[in-house]
Every structure is written in C-alpha cells, then in structure tokens.
Amino acid sequence: MKVDLKHFKDLELWRSNTATAFKIDNKPTRKELNKLRFTASKTIELVREIVGCAVVVTSGKRCKELNRKIGGSSTSSHVRCEAFDFMVPGFSPSMLKSLFKQLSTSLEYDQLIFEHHNGAYWIHISWKEEDNRQQALTYEGGRYENFEN
Ligand SMILES: [Zn+2]
Questions:
Q1: What pLDDT digit, counting tens, does each position of 28-47 carry?
Q2: Distance (Å, whole) CA 92 – CA 148
Q3: Quick check: is 31 in a domain?
Q4: CATH number, domain at 77?
C-alpha cells in the first residue's frame, strides 16, 4: 500500500507547531506514514485538485501525547492517521464555507467539519477504509451541529 502524493510531502502530514513547542516526538512510524499517505490520497489530495491552489494542513497525525496536549478527543481520528485539518491561504471564512459546502456533496468522507475556534477557521476531514458516514457538521461556539446544505 505505497502511495505517492502529487501535492504533499510527508512532513506536511504530521508536522505540528504544538509538538515542536512542547518537544513532543510526533514522527510517524513507517506503517503510520503509509496510512497517512493513503488517507491523504482520499482527502486532501482531492481537495487540492478541487481548489486548484495550495492547501495547508494545520493538523494531521497526532501521537497520543500531542493529542492530549491539544485537548483532542481520546478517540480522535487524527491519532489513527485518518484525518486532516486544513485551511486555504487567502480564503475568507465565507470562501472556506463555500468550499466546505462543495466538498460535502462531492467527496467521500467519514466526517467533514467546518470548524471555527478562537478566530480561526479550518476544515476537518476524516476518511476510513469502510463505513464512512458522510457526516457533515459545523463546530462553532464550542458545539457541533449538523450542517444543513
Ligand atoms: Zn481535526
């Protein structure tokens, strides 16, 4: 299961400001890296093709320690290398929301979440080998809601 990505380097799939700041070793194992690449090929690579310009991963793989530090859910798909958070430089919140809407109807995913926290906006996308739920949600003001298209 060796996947070559057209638009993303391995480092982009796991580097983390928080891990760096707290000296947490978030480097993936060979197996995790293969899974990250595979997940990326089903998610952010497709997003990149749709958007047509740079897509920046703000959170990819999280080791357990990093996930705890960030306050992520203990069952986070980031820990399983099944999710990415990303933003698009130069996109306003409404442009990002439009993209989210487009992605929600054109991609396969487990969860697609439009997130807004502390003045920042990003999109979370997760993908599993099977039983993807096509669950589109918004996370604003600290709560999740179903996204009504
Ligand atoms: Zn996420």
A1: 999 999 999 999 999 999 99
A2: 20
A3: yes
A4: 3.30.1380.10
Give the residue numbers spanning the domain of 126.
Answer: 10-146
Instruction: Count up the domains in the chain and report the number.
Output: 1
pTM: 0.95
Q: CA 78 to CA 71: how far, in whole Å?
A: 12
Distance from the CA of 59 to the center of ligand 1, in angstroms? 7
List the Cα angle 88/90/95 in 5-degree steps. 70
Ligand 1 centroid vs 1 CA: distance in angstroms?
Answer: 24
CA of 123 to the centre of ligand 1 (A): 7
Of the pLDDT bands very low, low, confident and very high (cuts 50, 70, 90), residue 74 is confident
**CA 108 to centroid of ligand 1, rounded, Å:** 16
Give residue 40's pLDDT.
98
